[in-house]
Design brief:
Layout lengths: L6 E7 L3 H14 L4 E3 L8 E6 L6 H21 L5 E5 H14 L5 E3 L7 H8 L4 E3 L21 E5 L1 E2 L10 H4 L4 E2 L2 H13 L4 E5 L14 H9 L6 E5 L8 H9 L6 E3 L7 H6 L6 H14 L4 E8 L6 H14 L3 E6 L17 H26 L3 E9 L5 E5 L5 E5 L8 E9 L3 E6 L2 H6 L1
Parallel strand pairs: 1-2, 1-3, 3-4, 4-5, 5-6, 7-10, 10-11, 12-13, 13-14, 17-19
Antiparallel strand pairs: 8-9, 15-16, 15-18, 16-17, 18-19
Helix pairs in contact: 7-8, 8-10, 11-12
């Protein structure tokens, strides 16, 4: 394919790391058709909005983006050129017919389990609109091509999709479908290919990643032991986990495997058993604390992040304080927190006892202040420590690189570009609530650590 024949593909990715993985794989699927990824929708031949439905007002955000893309499409049409416009991901899955009706200039609407069919959809879209919202993930991974190009030093690897938990506030079971685990051999093969292409830090992804299981009863813990032995892989991470899917072999992996980073994202949502029951979480606050203590016993230096929903229907002041108590008891290195917002089609959307907006806002402010204090304190404990840092990109100014610590913290370091893609000992020199700064460690610093 000559440069003159290359078609420009712009994919705007919303939200989670799963969507980042999906966007990269969409580009791989479209590469044989002559599409090459670009950083802007300007003059693109195809634009894909890869959407996430978790955040509030996601559908309105789609139409805001589409309004700008429509203008660009019209400009190309005035020159006799064509731009294909597609909406993908979870908003497309949940609101596909509505999007197609309200935005007639959208050529394709497809859900997250169908992008392996993009070549066929692109061909079909030249003559008619395409809407594909099948929910089965079973055939998707089998039909994806091998990764193309340099994947970079840090890579995502999707091992599980979908959710069977049916938390009452969540749309994921309706937009991603039932839980599906990729075959063990396929995951190991993809990890080896990623390592061969330069990936040293691999994050395993799944809506409930620790629910992954192999055909012979293998668990995520077993998978981590296998991936740990692949040459070239130096760091392993995974997210997002569910408290109900913790298992013995996973605790063992944190105890035994130095390449498994000492960090876990484990959403709890609330510290109140009554609210957890209303959310259909099927775990208690005490059970969550037992998991935290068992992980600390397996890996004493482990750190945690979590998700919190404030103002769930029926949440009393006392129940909110139970969440605050749990936060104080755990101590989180990072977190995500939100006011409850209704998602159409979920059981919580019809619940009584809605909390007034001003109360939700006041509670969220208090909760985030506590969490910010914890984040700042945890990051502060890292100052003076030396830790391995994966340099994955250039920093905000010349002569600076950025990367991730074992605790998933962002860190900026004055370093030469030749270290990009390397894992280097870094002494942490400064910390805020959201990021670290550091310097390349000297031999004496490394020996002292």
């Amino acid at each position: 394919m000559t440069a003159a024949n290359t078609k420009k593909l712009y994919i705007k990715t919303w939200g989670c790391q799963m969507n980042e993985y999906d966007s990269r794989r969409m580009a791989d699927v479209l590469a044989p058709l002559g599409y090459a990824a670009v950083d802007s929708a300007d003059d693109a031949d195809m634009v894909i909005l890869n959407t996430c439905h978790i955040r509030e007002k996601a559908t309105e955000k789609v139409f805001s983006d589409l309004g700008r893309i429509r203008d660009q499409k019209n400009e190309k049409a005035a020159r006799g050129e064509k731009m294909l416009v597609a909406v993908a991901g979870c908003v497309a899955q949940a609101e596909g017919e509505f999007i197609a009706k309200r935005a007639p200039y959208v050529d394709m609407v497809f859900g997250p389990q169908t992008y392996h069919l993009l070549p066929e959809m692109v061909v079909k879209a030249t003559g008619e609109r395409v809407i594909n919202t099948s929910l089965s993930a079973e055939n998707k991974f089998d039909n994806l091509p091998s990764e193309s190009g340099d994947v970079g030093p840090a890579a995502f690897l999707s091992i599980q999709e979908g959710c069977d938990k049916f938390c009452t506030f969540c749309v994921v079971p309706y937009t991603r479908g039932a839980e599906f685990s990729r075959p063990l051999a396929a995951i190991v093969d993809e990890a080896k290919r990623l390592a061969d292409r330069g990936a040293k830090d691999i994050t395993l992804l799944g809506q409930n990643v620790n629910a992954w299981h192999g055909q012979n009863g293998e668990t995520l813990g077993d998978l981590l032991y296998l991936l740990h032995d692949i040459p070239g892989i130096e760091q392993l991470r995974y997210m997002t986990s569910h408290p109900r899917d913790m298992h013995d072999r996973l605790y063992d992996a944190h105890r035994d495997l130095p390449k498994v980073m000492p960090f876990m994202h484990l959403p709890v949502q609330s510290g109140s058993d009554a609210i957890l029951k209303a959310m259909n979480r099927k775990h208690t606050a005490a059970e969550y604390m037992d998991i935290i203590e068992r992980l600390k016993k397996a890996r004493p230096d482990i750190a945690f992040s979590s998700d919190f929903i404030v103002g769930f229907p029926g949440e009393s002041d006392a129940q909110f304080e139970e969440t605050m108590d749990l936060i104080r008891a755990v101590g989180f290195a990072a977190s995500y927190s939100f006011k409850y917002s209704s998602r159409p089609g979920t059981p919580a959307a019809t619940m009584q006892g809605l909390i007034r907006e001003e109360i939700k806002s006041e509670r969220l402010t208090r909760l985030q202040e506590l969490l910010r204090t914890q984040h700042t304190a945890f990051n502060g404990t890292c100052v003076g420590k030396t830790m391995p840092v994966m340099f994955s990109g250039k920093g905000n100014r010349d002569g600076q690189l950025h990367g991730r610590t074992p605790y998933n913290q962002a860190i900026h370091v004055d370093a030469q570009a030749r270290l990009l893609g390397e894992i280097v000992p870094v002494e942490v020199t400064k910390a805020t609530a959201t990021a670290l700064s550091g310097r390349i460690a000297t031999r004496e610093t490394v020996l002292a650590a």
